[in-house]
C-alpha cells in the first residue's frame, strides 16, 4: 500500500483496498492507459518472438492492467515492469510502478533494490536498442560515447524522476499524518487538562463551602448558644431580680452584635471573592478553557485558606469570660510561654476551644469545665474537659444540635497536620483534645 490508510478505509468508503473512490477511479484509468500502451507494444514483440499478434496484444493488456494493483502490491507491479523490460514495453508501467513503490511504506532497502533492478534492466535494453539503431543507420555516424550516453540518460530519465517524486510524496504524507496525530494528541491532552482543572476547581469549591460551613457553624452556634442561655436566665430572674435581668439582657445584646459583626465580615469576604462575570467558557478555545479552569482552581484554593483577620489565641480569655457570664464554671490554665503562631494555627486553636465550650452549653449545661492550653517547642496543645452535668440542668437546656461540631473540629485540625481526639471520660464527662504543629 502507498499509505497507512488501512484504519481509515471503512470510514472513507472506497472499494476493496482503496481508501477513497477517486483513488480507485485514478488507478483504473492508469491501468487502462497502460494496457493500451502495452497492447500496441505487444504487436512488434509478437513479430520478433514469432507469436501470433493476438497473443502479443493479450500479453500487453494483461501486463499493463497489473498497474491496477499498484497500491496493494507495489513490489509485484515493479517486478512485472522489470520482467517485461526486455520486451521493450511498459514505459508507463515502469514509471508509475516506481513512483508507487517509492511513496509506499516499504523499507528503504527494498525500494533501493527494486529501483536498481529497474535501472539496470532499462540500461541494458537501452544499450541494445541504441546499438541496433546505430547499425541500421548509415547516414548518421557518431563516436563510441553516444551509445553509453543515450543508455544512461534514458535509464535515469525513466527511473530517477518517479523514484524521487515518490520519495517526496511519501515523506510528505507521513509528515502530515504525524502532524495530524500530534494535533489529535494535543487536543486530547488539552481536553484532559480542562477536565482535571475543572475537577480541581470543583474540589476547591467544595473545600471552600466546607470551610464556610465550619466558620458559620462556629460563629452562629457559639454566639447563639450563649444568647439562648442568657435569655433563659433572663426569663428566670426577670421578676425576682430586675438588675440581673438588665445585665443579662445587655449580655444578650452584646452577643448578638458580636455575631452580626462576624457574619458581616465573613459575608464581606465572600462578596469580595466572587468570580468576575465575563465571557462564557463556550466562547473560549479549548486551551483557554483549560487555563481558565486551572486559574479558577488556583484562585479557589487560595481563597480556601483562612483569612488573617482572626480570631487569635489572645482572645481566649474573653471567650472563657463570656461562658462564665452565662453561668458556666470554667477554669483556664496556660502552660509554657505564650507566643505568636501562624494565623491558621491560632484560628484553628481558638475555634476548637470555642466549639468545645459551645457543646458544653448545649449538652452539659451547669457542668464544671476545664480549659487547658499548652505552648510547647514545636506544637501547641489545647484541651477542654467537662464534668458530668447536673441532671435537671441538662434536661432544661433545649438547644438544637446539628451534629457537625466535632466533625468540623477534626477537619480543621487534620488540614493543618494535627491530631484531634474526643470522647467521653471515665467520670461521665466529655473531653476534647487537639495538638497543632507550631508552623
TrEMBL record:
One MF term in the entry's GO annotations: kinase activity
Coiled coil segments of this chain: 169-196
Pfam families per UniProt: HisKA_3 (PF07730)
Keywords: ATP-binding, Coiled coil, Kinase, Membrane, Nucleotide-binding, Phosphoprotein, Transferase, Transmembrane, Transmembrane helix, Two-component regulatory system
TM region(s), chain numbering: 51-69, 75-98, 110-130, 142-169
Reaction equation(s) it catalyzes: ATP + protein L-histidine = ADP + protein N-phospho-L-histidine
Name under which the protein is recorded: histidine kinase
Organism: Streptomyces kunmingensis
